[in-house]
Amino acid sequence: MTHDAPDLWQPWQMEGALSRRVDDGPVPYRLDLYLPPQPAPALGYPLLVVLDGQALFPTAVGLQRRLGHRPQITGVQPVAILGIGHVGRQLYDAEQRRGDFTRGPSSQGDAGGDGDAFLAHLIHGLLPHLDDLPIDPHRLGLFGHSLAGLFVLESLGQLDFPFRTAVAASPSLWWDPEATRHRAANLAPHAIDSLGLLVGEQEQTTDDPRRASRRMVDLALHLARQISEVRAARRFHHAVLPQTDHAGTADAGLRLALAMASAN
Q1: Which residue range is the domain that position 241 belongs to?
Q2: Domains in the chain: how many in total?
Q3: Strand-pair partners of 199
Q4: For residue 79, is it within any domain?
Q5: Over the stretch 202-231, which tens digit does the pLDDT of each residue have?
Q6: Which of these, 182, 181, 263, 197, lies nearest to 233 by C-alpha position?
């Protein structure tokens, strides 16, 4: 086997992606931005905001580049993507995620955070960094997985919520089921244009007793019925994905989020 000289290997950079650190909030955040190569529409690109950006931004961009290449077949138009992540080398910062994505302690006594404060900072502190870019402020989408998916659902109907589309993949509904159900029951009709709620079939049939006890599928189906009853979304897509575990719902959820962002 022929070995390449080390200097032939170069750092890999994602084409079309930009990154910056923002320090003007309670904690620093990393913003990763992807702008499609196609010319921006007159009003700007639709934007999909991806939470846990340090883990999911590359996946979202990869899907957009592949699916957006043939929009007539995939239904995915050119969409700009903003990844919002926590600063550091960790793929997931467990403590910071609880602080940003939950609203109070869990029903099992886990320490929680202030999701309302993070939502306010997201809207008024982070999104304004895009004001000078070709983004349509009236076509914003939001995606979250796991605890971030819980944050997405519990943010619906909040004051100044600017997102027309939202997708929650495997939301952590076990965190405080009663509080989540109460919020859903009080949503106004058509609180959002398009909403997606996905969960993996294997999340409840797993051999991991801790995950199985969380009854992710049961909780998601119950919440889906509530959302449908109050007509919280003009278009609501919910599904139990066959042969899919907790991690696997993120990819399917991102694809749905891109399609929803394209259609609105």
Answers
A1: 15-263
A2: 1
A3: 240
A4: yes
A5: 998 767 777 767 889 999 999 999 999 999
A6: 197
